Amino acid sequence: MDVESREGAFREARPVTAAPAGETLAKIQAALGCVPVFAGTRWEDVEVEPLDSFTNLSYKLTAHGSAYVLRVAGKGTSSYIDRGAEEHNARIATEAGLNAEVLFFDPDDGTMLSRFIEGPHMDRIGLHDDPEAIARAALTLRRVHGIGKAFKSRFGPYAPIDYYFELLRGLNSPLPDVFHEVKHGAEAVRQVLKAASVPAAPCHNDTCPENFVEVGGSVYLIDWEYSGMNDPMCDLGNLSVETGFDPEQDRVMMEAYCGGAVPPGLYDRVVLHKAISDYFWGLWGLVQHANGSPATDYWAYATDRFEHCKAVMGNDEFRTRLDAVRAPNETAKKPRA
What residue ranges carry the coiled-coil annotation (predicted)? Predict the structure, then answer.
């Protein structure tokens, strides 16, 4: 597969859209009982519609003329998602006009009720064909990075990677052969990014096109589970990988983000984050596989991500950009004469 010109991101998934029943239904009813806006509302008067979801169970609830989204955390997610940090960060994003209003959040089990945002999600094909849409996505990320309030958690560079390793060891989960082929190189890239002296900013860290929702002239980001303080170029690199941008689309994204000329070295970090994005989400896929998530074939998904990581890192341009990011760090370490 050609690394830079592939269309779409990765293997098609089959989102979970099951109707609520049993314990899940009880959780929904209990959550609504804690939300003032639902006070006195009979369950029989609530219309429930399952929504596509890969690791959680999500439902659109319609009652008294308004629409909401109820998220019930998926099996095993509490082992690798800090729900307290998610709530803190999601509420900050809401205050900044970037997220749906959060009406209820239980940090113990991850149940969340928010306003439903009525608008189309961005999609990979649409972004490919529309430079203005790429620019809107990039400017939305610039707004996220400029929120001005610290997020509660730290993500960079992809801090959960070490924890995912521990989870997989504890689950005695096998690793695909291609993982062993990329591990050394990806970890070396990760260490270079760690050593880079870059101020951390609030980041979304899961910038797939489907998490961008357009309403009129505004763009919202949903799903702040992985949000945290990070190198802002992580969000741009991840968007590029998830959407399959080519170099021209990367240029449009970067120039929109920067408001013109891209400062030297900035795009070097974006390219490095592309590789680590594949590495991170590959490990994430293995965790989903080990937890028995039914949404898709996560073993195949993870293998695809590692294969793409291998292809990205095998590119001559990648090695040049890796050296460019590493060089200032090595210079800073040298003792003064």
Answer: none
